[in-house]
User: What shape does this take?
Amino acid sequence: MRTGMRFAAALLAAALSACGGGSSGAPPVAATPTPVSPPVYTTTAIANTSGFRMTPIAGDRLAMAVAADGRIAFASTFIFGVLVVNGPLSTFTGSLLRSAPADGPITYGRGADGDLYSAWTNGSAPPTVFKESSGAKWTLVPPRCGAGCDPVAQAWPLAILAGPDGATWVVVTGGLLRLNADGTTTGLAPAATQTVLWDAVVGPDNAFWAVDGLGAIERIPLSGAPAAFAVGGHPTRIAPGWDGTLWFLDLVNGVRRITTSGAVTTVVPPPSGSFSEGDAIAQGPDHALWFAEANANKLGRVSLSGALNEFSVPAAGDAPAGIAAAPDQSLYFMEQNRAGVLVVHAIVPQSFVSAGF
Assistant: This one.
């Protein structure tokens, strides 16, 4: 298996087929776009020094993460490296981080300690997570795996984040895993017995809120019973909003949000036609939500009132993905379709001031 995205997508397709797909959800809320100036970009082109395929292809899951010291990590299939803001690029040689060329990084995340963590797998052995500064390793075991369960499939990692308990957690298809200091993991199972969790964040109630590609948002607390809120469609990415709600992307229904009581609103339908699985959503320094539109070759911005603006990216056909906020008040994103190099763009902080964001 070459990518986590394809593997998770296959799981999702099979599960959707079994349960008959998802509903379309609530109608969009009317919103009036506010004219603003296009953002200003900076661009870094990264040559292939790793010996492996550098350029993402359609279907790859592009992941980005930002460390406390400003390092920008990126991963997709055999792409792996860290971009130091205003400094050089380093690519991992792999002595600690992979056991064979068939292994690939699935995702990066910023842990509770501010360091970067990466998740790796070759599709057959149990997935692993590494702490980048020390090489500390965890083998992922699904939080729940009954008769007929595939432990590799249920422990497939798709996101890494800091938990409300001061620990680093991994989102796997079958739940959430806490990375313990002794190298073990502790699992939290979702409410639904069949899930394909794609992403999670910590909500204002200090519980995990996870998107289940089977058409639900899961609330998973550190203690107490989890709850599943049916939302229909195909939710894939989630981010905390500045308004105390959780905002998520739904490939069928668009940009949506859910309150901590489970009330769901569709804010805007899929802009420019549709999303792709590689899209991402993040808080911007302007108190809006920014997301990548790979299929439309644009970035989208949605204000808390629901006003949508779309911006073209620097080059035609770039297919932006993997957006992440950095400590320097920039927003970073990657592109998928530039042959031979990986290109990382940044929306510079001055954009949010000069454009009136």
User: Anything to note?
Assistant: The two ends are 42 Å apart (CA to CA). The first helix runs from residue 4 to 19.
